[in-house]
Amino acid sequence: MESQDLRKAGLKVTLPRLKVLEILETSDLRHMSAEDVYKALLEMGEEIGLATVYRVLTQFEGAGLVSRLSIDGGHAVFELEDGSHHDHLLCVRCNRIEEFIDDVIEQRQRAIAAEKGFEMTDHSLYIYGICRHCQKTK
Amino acid sequence: MESQDLRKAGLKVTLPRLKVLEILETSDLRHMSAEDVYKALLEMGEEIGLATVYRVLTQFEGAGLVSRLSIDGGHAVFELEDGSHHDHLLCVRCNRIEEFIDDVIEQRQRAIAAEKGFEMTDHSLYIYGICRHCQKTK
DNA sequence: ATATAAATGAAAAAGCTTCTCATTTACACC
DNA sequence: GGTGTAAATGAGAAGCTTTTTCATTTATAT
Ligand SMILES: [Mn+2]
Ligand SMILES: [Mn+2]
Ligand SMILES: [Zn+2]
Ligand SMILES: [Zn+2]
């Protein structure tokens, strides 16, 4: 019954929106590209256009329902917003994504912005590396 | 006489390479997109193709002569490499870029990678905000 | 000077994302 | 339950940055 979430966000309750939300909620993947969502919809038998998936994800972002990560090298991935900020570790071999929060870093960032006279609006932090799993694989 | 830098990097000494290097060294802008470099070359009277600018910048990156920042939202900017790692603050209004280093953050990043079993290869940190100048402008 | 591997320019292609516009749909109101 | 209207959708075109292709030019070793 997430129609309420959509109404609250000022969005009409439509099938594409409900289905995209459903995919995000039920997929094993916590971080999905628009293409991932699109393919999941097809597998589910829903013929929703890729342009609509992009539109809906962007609207969800605007409504605070999802957040967008802009990964190095072009494409974006989306994840359901749960209110808690966190940053990401990315495996350069297998693209695995792990999450972390570090209060020390968060605090230092605020201090740096203040030092430089910036009114901080956002930040993005990615740690790239080779994950445990891929280190074994050679 | 930076022909030596090119030879050392295993690159032939060509006019496009010398001129791109010259632009990077003499421009007021410390951070330049490929397009910025391309336009600066045109203003200088050098008709060097944009594809060549991209190629040369990418080779310079490989050779460690420049580093590439992948700014949120697509396009990259390049800066001459001076051996010292630093991160960036970006003004969302005027695109001004400021630099900083924070040893506490650097150290926390290494600790987080270790905790998660990642062999860290790189990281990218951008603080977005409104710079001092733009805060006045409203 | 000559040969050859590398570099260049111009245009096409790639890859992701947004836009256009004709058609369909949600929902407020009678 | 119908109706009207603004909003949403689908399909394809277009946009943007960056890379690739390939014919031609150039740097450098001999
Ligand atoms: Mn996440
Ligand atoms: Mn810099
Ligand atoms: Zn991995
Ligand atoms: Zn500014």
Account of the protein in words:
Two copies of one chain form a homodimer. Chain A has 138 residues and is of the alpha+beta class. Chain A folds into two domains: 2-80, Winged helix-like DNA-binding domain superfamily/Winged helix DNA-binding domain (Arc Repressor Mutant, subunit A, Orthogonal Bundle), CATH 1.10.10.10; 87-137, Ferric-uptake regulator, C-terminal dimerisarion domain (Dna Ligase, domain 1), CATH 3.30.1490.190. In chain A, 43% of the residues lie in helices and 24% in strands. The first copy, chain A, is built from six helices and six strands, in the order H-H-E-H-H-E-E-E-E-H-E-H. In chain A, the strands form two sheets. In chain A, strands 1-3-2 form a three-stranded antiparallel β-sheet. In chain A, strand 4 (87-91) and strand 5 form a beta hairpin. In chain A, helix 3 (34-43) packs across helix 4. Chains A and B meet through helix 5 and strand 6 of A and helix 5 and strand 6 of B. The complex binds manganese (II) ion (2 copies) and zinc ion (ZN) (2 copies). Chain A binds a DNA duplex (30 and 30 nucleotides) through helix 2 and helix 4.
